[in-house]
Every structure is written in C-alpha cells, then in structure tokens.
Design a protein that fits this description.
Blueprint (H helix, E strand, L loop, with lengths): L2 H23 L9 H6 L17 E4 L2 H9 L5 H5 L15 E7 L14 E7 L5 E4 L3 E4 L5 H12 L7 E8 L4 E6 L5 E4 L7 H7 L10 E7 L2 E6 H6 L12 E6 L3 E6 L5 E4 L7 H7 L8 E12 L1 H8 L1 H9 L10 E7 L6 H4 L10 E6 L1 H25 L4
Parallel strand pairs: 1-15, 7-11, 12-16
Antiparallel strand pairs: 2-3, 2-6, 4-5, 7-8, 9-10, 9-11, 12-13, 14-15, 14-16
Length: about 400
C-alpha cells in the first residue's frame, strides 16, 4: 500500500476515534428528566444551590396514609369561605322595593275608612334616599327596616290622627334583594330573593340551570370583595356547599372541563379529559394508555400539582411544611403550594394505593424514561458514527 494511502487510513482512524470521543461527551437527547433527577430536584436535593433558579417543593412517595390524606382533605368550599348562613339573614326593606301599606280604622268616618270600607291600601316605592310617603304621616324612612318595624312606625305615627289604627305592610316587589346569575346557564337572570332565603342550587334553577354537565361546570360566587369557585358537582355532593345567597351576590357559571396532562413515556400524551366527576390515579393511567414498556421507568410515575395548604400539611406534617416555607416555598396566586407525588409501580401495593389517590383538575402526570433508554440512544448514535467512519475509511469519501 502506498504511503499516501497509509496516511489516509491513519487520518480516518484518528477521525473515527475523535468522533467517538465527541459523542461520548455529548448530551444524549432526552424526553424529560429521569426518575432520580425529579427526586433530586425536591427541596432536599442539590438542584437548588443556585438561588436564581430556586423553586422549593417537596417530592413525596405515595403510600396508603398519603392517599387517604389527600382523598379525605376538603377541597375549595363556599362554606369555608363565606359560611353557611341561614335563610339569607333577616330581610329588610331596601331602595326600589315596592310596598303595599294597608291602613285600617275602627270608625266609619276616619282618615282611611268610610261606611263602605274600613281600610285603604297605599302603594309605596322606596326612593333612592330610602324614604317613602304615607298620607297624614309624611316621609318615612323604610330602608333598613323590617316589615314589622315599618308597621310599628306607621301605627305610632297615626295613633293621634286616626281612629284606633292598625297597619299591614306587604312586600309587592322586592327589588333590593336580588342576585345576578350569568355565564353558562340556560337563562342569565337577575333573580329576586324575596323574603325567604334561597340556596345557590335554587338560584341556579331559577336561572334555568347550568347548560353543561355539573362535573365540568364551575360556580364562582363573588361577595363583599371575595371570590371563590367551586365545582357544581361538589355543591350537589356536599350540601354544606349549597349555601344561602345574599343580596348583591354575583354568581358566574363557567364551563371548564376537568383535564390532566399526560407527559413522558405514556402511550398517549397531551391534555386528557376526566369525563367524570372524580378520577383516581389508576383511572388516569388507563386513560393515558398505560406506559411504554420499552422505555418507561416503573419507579418514576409522578404527579405534579399545586396543593391546598391544609392538604400539604396533612401530607408532610406541620414541621416539614414550616421548614419548606422557611426555605422559600411560595404559593401560587390561589394560595396553593407546589408538590410532586411519586408512585413506584414496581411495588405491587402501588396498584391498590393508586385506586384511592385522586387526580385533580390541571394535574400534570409524568412517566419518566428508564435510564437504559439513554444508553441505548447513545449506543445507536455511536453505531451510526462508527458506520460513517468505516465508510470513509473503506471508500475514501464521506458520500
């Protein structure tokens, strides 16, 4: 073989060796973090030594106690935020109310009676200043009064003018006691509350009911500057959440299907709808088509979510929660804290535990790839690189 040819062979061997070294040092393309990378990214891992990238959360392996705690912990509640109330409180007269004031007298020739009639009915509309006019009484401030107190006020004012007067005050139109219902209902309405208290479910019924399934419909209640959203299904299932509404409450009904996102080595990825009121982790795994047996790591099934504070404390304990807060764990805009739950599918009991672990709306379910997958990818790249180097050596050209 000629010297130039030997020189080319030596160059090819050096090129091939350099290629392998470069491939060995490169980062193998991945499909998300490995199991140990997720675990080490928790509050006790080394991933948070750089303050600029710090996001504090805990990584918790699901067992029966944790599954029971999460499943039993109360979720967002109207009763917790606003109280249950009772009959909407004592009803009072307000601006815009239309009253019918009937005045009786004992004599046949009184101010409000004749030989034919012993009474006179006077319509009264409560004016913006809260007052209404009654003949021979003058201006009466009705706003803020109960029906009984309004009656007593008028009777006292007429005792020196009418013959043994008696008074009945009736509410003809209770315009001041209303609640607005908007959004995904069959008939957006201003619903009058009347003198009796109404529950949220009754007000929604008067607005034609929700137009979508209750397990995909949220009811938002705004009262005195505070707002809380609750799944309509929760109101149906938990009577305590079917609280009494109050005048000037605002109710907005919105259709927002419950979904979770499946990522990683699941057979199906993307946003997946519950299509049910509740969903367990086992059911969610089934909806995602299970795991890819060739690439998935059964020890790395993770649920990423923001959890309510009371649930977080129940899961990790008060001392651990305070420690996480002291280290910088912060809530989202709704006061919930980040947490990652881990399920080890290599353990037989996990399939039982997962039946009792609830998936929540907007959860992210991630199935990590097995570490051997990266090695297989690397060997595939190495094999491709070796073949290319061999072709160069054999033919003396890259193409």
């Amino acid at each position: 073989m000629s010297r130039p040819r030997k020189g080319l062979d030596a160059f090819v061997r050096i090129l091939a060796a350099g290629t392998l070294l470069a491939l060995a040092g490169c980062i193998v393309p991945s499909d998300g973090p490995l199991t140990n990378e997720v675990i080490s990214s928790g509050a006790d891992g080394k991933a948070y030594e750089i303050p600029q990238t710090k996001l504090i959360f805990d990584v918790v392996t699901i067992d029966q106690r944790i599954a029971n705690s999460v499943n039993a912990s109360p979720r967002a509640s109207f009763a917790k935020t606003f109280g249950i109330g009772g009959g909407g409180g004592t009803p009072v007269i307000g601006v815009g109310d239309r009253l019918e004031v009937t005045i009786f007298e004992a004599g046949p020739d009184g101010l409000f009676s004749t030989a034919e009639r012993k009474s006179t009915t006077i319509p009264v509309i409560v004016q913006p200043d809260g007052h209404g006019q009654i003949p021979y009484v003058g201006s009466v401030r009705f706003a803020g009064m109960t029906i009984d107190s309004a009656r007593s006020t008028i009777v006292d004012a007429l005792k020196a003018k009418a013959v043994e007067p008696d008074v009945i005050v009736a509410m003809a139109d209770n315009a001041s006691r209303t609640v607005s219902v908007q959004g995904d209902v069959n008939k957006s309405s201003i619903v009058p509350l009347g003198l009796n208290g109404l529950h949220i479910s009754e007000v929604l019924a008067m607005a034609g009911g929700a137009s979508k399934p209750p397990y995909d419909t949220y009811v938002s209640l705004k009262r005195a500057g505070r707002t809380r959203s609750v799944l309509l299904q929760s109101i149906i299932d938990n009577p305590r959440d079917d609280i009494y509404v109050k005048p000037e409450d605002q109710i907005y009904v919105s259709y927002d299907p419950q979904t979770f996102s499946a990522l990683g080595q699941t057979e199906k990825s993307g946003k997946i709808a519950f299509n049910a009121a509740k969903l367990s982790l086992v059911e969610a795994a089934a909806l995602a088509g299970g795991g890819n047996t060739a690439t998935a790591d059964p020890k790395g099934y993770f649920i990423f979510r923001y959890e309510e504070e009371n649930v977080y404390r129940s899961v990790v304990g008060d001392d651990r929660f305070r420690d996480l807060i002291s280290r910088g764990m912060a809530p989202d805009t709704e006061g919930r804290y980040p947490i990652v739950y881990r399920l080890d599918l290599a353990a037989t009991q996990s399939y039982i535990v997962a039946q009792n672990f609830p998936v929540r709306n907007k959860d992210v379910i991630y199935l990590a790839r097995h570490v051997a997958t990266d090695f297989a990818k690397f060997m595939s790249i190495v094999s491709s690189g070796s073949s290319a180097a061999y072709n160069i050596q054999r033919t003396g050209r890259a193409f």
